[in-house]
Structure formats: structure tokens, C-alpha cells
Amino acid sequence: MSFARSTRAAGDRVRGTVEDGTHRARKPVFYLVTVAFVAFLLFALRESMVMVGTAWTDGYAFPVHRVHHMMIGGMLTVFAATVAVQLYRPAKRVGALQAAIAFAISAFVLTVVASGLAAAGEILVFVIPVLLIALLHPARRQLVPTLERMDARLIALAAVGALGMATVAVGEYASHTTLTNEHVAFGHFEFMLFATVSIGLFALLGALRPTGWRALVYAAAALAVLFAAGSLAFPGIEQGSSLGTAGALATVVWAVAFVGLAEYVDRADSTESESINAEPTPAESV
């Protein structure tokens, strides 16, 4: 072995040892930060999260805010859940953390756009921990989206849903910046702005089929159906935001089709992989 080759081999061994040691040191910090952040979310957001259910009840204290409150409750519940699931086999939950990152960043950026940097500063208490968890994550390299497992049919359907939600988001932004009612005062249109954008991002990221893709696909579909159901159940203009009857029904159809296609693609890939693995090698067939 030449001196240069020996040097490279020694360097690779040292680098591998350092990376392994760094990974072992990072793991307990990852769990500590994640546990602390989940506890904070449950404490800070518990009243908001339960609105996903209470907003449907008779005698609700804020009847003109039902649609907004159920969407706030639903989105925050999904956000908390995507962080909490990192505590069990996080390397298998990459898609869930991608959803949390997408929501946190879109909330921050769109709040800057809609209300200014000062208003967005309040969201940093959610953004910074999520990014820290991502940096400490055991599978952090997989958090960067890739096209390796993308399915063209699924990405096309995701794009349809994302485009529809982007159209709604434009309307929410216009309402936030031009109206002066209580929905604006409470920041409801602003929340709906980054909630609808997040649904679209979840769909697009889910269509790339990362490890744990179901968290993204099912979150996008569930939140879309929640918005549609609220629009159908409480169609009054006083609610401030609505998909309308036709839009709500189309959204439900899209959500069902998106989940169905995602599962079909996954099943087809699994069947193909099993067939390839079952084929005998040339040596075996002799």
C-alpha cells in the first residue's frame, strides 16, 4: 500500500470515528430538545388545539369563528403530532418532521409578508426549536427533499391540490390586508394564509415519498377535508373563510384521490420490489 493510500485510509477511519462519536453525542440532546419542545407545545397550544373539536359543538362561544377555530385547532394539532412522533424511531419519521419544518417556516415567512417582521418575531419560539431538532435529527440528511422516489402521477395530483390551496391563500391574504373586521384583528386570515400554503407544501413533499411519507400525505388530506367540512357545515359569510359548496366537494374528492393514489403507488412499488427479489440469479438457475 502506498503512503498516499495509507494516509487516505487513516483519514477515512478517523473521520468515521469522529462522525460516529458525534452521532452518539447528538442523539441524547435530540431527545432532550424534542421532549422539552413537545411539553411546551402541549402547554402553550392545548386550548387552541382542542378547538378542532369544540368548534363543532352547539352553543360554541364564538359561533362566527367556527371555521377559523377548527382550522387553527387542526393545524396546530398536526404540528404538535409531527414533532411528538420523533420520539419513537425518528429515522422512520422523516416525512413528519418535514411537515413540521414546512409549517414553521411558511408561518414565519408569510407572517413577515402579511404583517411585518415584528409580528413574525413571535413565531420564532416555534421555528427555532424545530430547526434545532432538524439539525440534531438522526436522519437529518434525509430531511432535504429529493426526486429519487418521486412518482409523476402523484406529483401532478399534489400540484393540483397545491394550486387550489394557493388560490385560497391569495384570497386570505387579500382579506387580511384589506378588511378591518374582527377576523383581521384576531389574525385569523393570516393563520389561514399559511395554513392553506402548508397543506399544499405537505402534498408536494408527500408526493416525493420520503421515509415516513404517510405523515405528509395524510396530514394534507385530513386538513383539506377539515376545511371542506367546515365550509359545508358553516357556509355563512360571517365565518370569513370558505371553500364554497363546489370547492369543498372538489377538495374532498382531491383528498380521497390523493391518499388513494399514494397508497396505490406504494403498493405497486412494493410488489415490483418483491418480484425482483424473488427472481433467481443466474447462479441459482444453473
Folded structure, characterized:
The protein is mainly alpha-helical. It has one domain. 77% of the residues lie in helices and 0% in strands. The chain has 12 helices and no strands. Helix 4 crosses helix 10. The protein is globular. About 2% of the residues have low confidence.
Task: Show the helix and strand layout.
Blueprint: H1 3-49, H2 51-54, H3 66-84, H4 94-115, H5 117-120, H6 124-136, H7 152-178, H8 182-185, H9 188-207, H10 214-233, H11 244-278, H12 282-285
Low-confidence stretches: 14-19
Which range does the strand content fall in?
under 5%
| Helix vs. strand class | mainly alpha
For the biggest sheet, the summary is: none
Taken in chain order, the helices and strands follow as HHHHHHHHHHHH
- Cα distance spanning the termini: 39 Å
- Total domains: 1
> Roughly how much helix do the residues carry, as a percent range?
over 70%
Q: Can you count the beta strands?
A: 0
Q: What general outline do the C-alpha atoms trace? A: globular
Q: What's the overall average pLDDT, rounded?
A: 91
- What is the gyration radius calculated from CA atoms? 22 Å
Per DSSP, the total helix count is: 12
